[in-house]
Design a protein that fits this description.
Largest sheet of chain B: 5 strands, parallel
Pfam family, one (chain A): Transketolase_C
Number of helices of chain A: 12
Number of domains of chain A: 2
CATH topology of chain B: Rossmann fold
Family (chain A): Belongs to the transketolase family.
Order of helices and strands of chain A: EHEHEHEHHEHEHEEEEHEEHEHEHH
CATH superfamily of the largest domain in chain A: Thiamin diphosphate (ThDP)-binding fold, Pyr/PP domains
Cofactor (chain A): thiamine diphosphate
Number of strands of chain A: 14
CATH topology of the largest domain in chain A: Rossmann fold
Largest sheet of chain A: 7 strands, mixed
Shape of chain A: globular
Distance between the termini of chain B: 16 Å
Helix content of chain B: 40-55%
Number of strands of chain B: 7
Strand order of the largest sheet of chain A: 3-2-4-5-7-6-12
CATH class of the largest domain in chain A: Alpha Beta
Oligomer: heterodimer
Number of domains of chain B: 1
Strand order of the largest sheet of chain B: 1-2-3-7-6
Strand content of chain B: 5-15%
Number of helices of chain B: 11
Strand content of chain A: 15-25%
Radius of gyration of chain A: 19 Å
GO molecular function (chain A): transketolase activity
Keywords (chain A): Thiamine pyrophosphate, Transferase
Chain lengths: ~325, ~300
Amino acid sequence: MSAIITKPRLTTSAMIASIAGEGQRTVNAPFGHALIAEAARRPNIVGMTADLSKYTDLHIFANEHPNRFFQMGMAEQLLMGAAGGMAKEGLMPFATTYAVFATRRAYDFIHQVIAEEHLNVKICAALPGLTTGYGPSHQATEDIAMMRGIPGLTIVDPCDALDTQQAVAAIAAHDGPVYMRLLRGKVPLVLDEYDYKFELGKAKLLRDGKDVLIISSGIMTMRALEAMHALADGSAEVAVLHVPTIKPLDEATIIAQCSHPGRLVVVAENHSIVGGLGEAVATTLMRAGVHPAFRQIALPDEFLAAGALPTLHDRYGISTSSIVATIKRWLA
Amino acid sequence: MTFTNKNPATTEALHIRLARHAYRIRRFALRMGEVQGQGYIGQALGLADVLAVAYCHAMNIRPDDPEWEGRDRFLLSHGHYAIALYAALLEAGVLKEEELETYGFDDSRLPMSGMASYTPGMEMSGGSLGQGLTIAVGMALGLRHKNNPAFVYNSMSDGELDEGATWEGALSASHHKLSNLIVLVDINRQQADGSSHDTLNFEPLSDKWLAFGWHVQRINGNDINAVIAAFDIARALKDPVPRVILVDTLMGKGVPFLETREKSHFIRVEEGEWKEAIAMLDASQPPSRTDLAPDLYTTGDRS
């Protein structure tokens, strides 16, 4: 076996690789700062974490409000159970950990303690989908599929720093349990150029176009906008519908946008092709009797590889260049 | 925090009164069992003395206002013990006696497994075992955060000691010095697949809780005086540590043919046996209020 490597390699490097592109505008820790702003208005907000405050930007809140921060240790079942207990006492916990641990490890506690009693807990979970190169232990590729099955749980998947900041205020104003996918660290700033405002439960058309409609959530909206610009070279006019609230789904807007004749519908998500936004949109359209040409850009139903994020995003088809190539192939 | 059982005469009166409450809790449970033809009656009879002391002596509650902010919270982590807690809530006056007839039927407020949104005084939806202590930790932290001096009780079964989350909660309560948290572990040594010793042995149990940093008492949970003393000690303790009372109980306590029936997690009671069980319980009942001089019955604490 020849293991001699002659070229510089991309490496996994860090557990949390930045999703920001080269030279992209970013905002530092938008979640932590937004939570401080919201906590100033709402004295019942508390922060809780399972040994990951520094990696979910909750440490910023903890530094500002040490008496309103609760370290629960590396015990996610406890985190969710105790967050439920806090909510029973009228407090509004923002509970943070990684998405894999919140969902896969503590599922029954979210289901039974928090959701069954419709408690006012905001679960903010970092490393959603494929945003780390650490392999399946850290890649939450099925978190939305799992969370969608829980009745009454609101699911939010913000795109960028602006979306995250506005979503924090919106989910705090919402009375009930929320699962929010969390972008942390230096988070790209994109949506300020699109006259956008986050509204819980609303999908927003960021750009219109006659050939293709990309329906997307989370960081895939950022990629969809980049793909839209790339395809504007005469290849296709692309509309982008951002769906930051996965549940409850803005079915009316989705049905209306998918009813334009002749427009290819592409759902793009940073999630397994099983059980996420794509399937949610597909069933919505089937039930409504709307049958556009329909495609999905999503992660495969596999345990994904470890490696550098750019490599993995190319390999699994969710990088901008992959999306552009895929859509061109579909249009050909 | 005040206690009224300091002098021996009052202690005797308290004992008599609580024994009577325990008898009535057992009787309510048997009547619900008869209504439905089933229920975890072995556990209810076993835990009746503990519930009598909790609801009719130790806990600060307002029966007509089950969500009163100042109340002591009681979490029933083992949701299948619902029949026992309903009986205690009936005895405490939170539930009315006529509701007993609805136990386990469709649209009843008294489902077979405890659910918070169904029943006044039911603080959690139990049944997914091992969750109660984690909720209790959050409530105890929340109460302290609000400067509310109420206690949180978490009642759990010995089978729940198998669940890892129980020990996450135990570690956390100690770390956070939750002196407003009192855990009750019902040790009846039975779980679904057989004896707890053969299923997943948890002994030596006192040592485990001690090692986790808790104040530990292990008592005979069917000895009313021991139960009263344990609750009083747990409440009065000044140490900044959470408290656990490990109660060894006898399933079926109070009904001789159920006490000696072959032990299992779910004790079967045949159709004709409910009336017989109630009759046996009645035959050995403690003296009632009318049998006693008023000054011996009134202890000065709640109810």
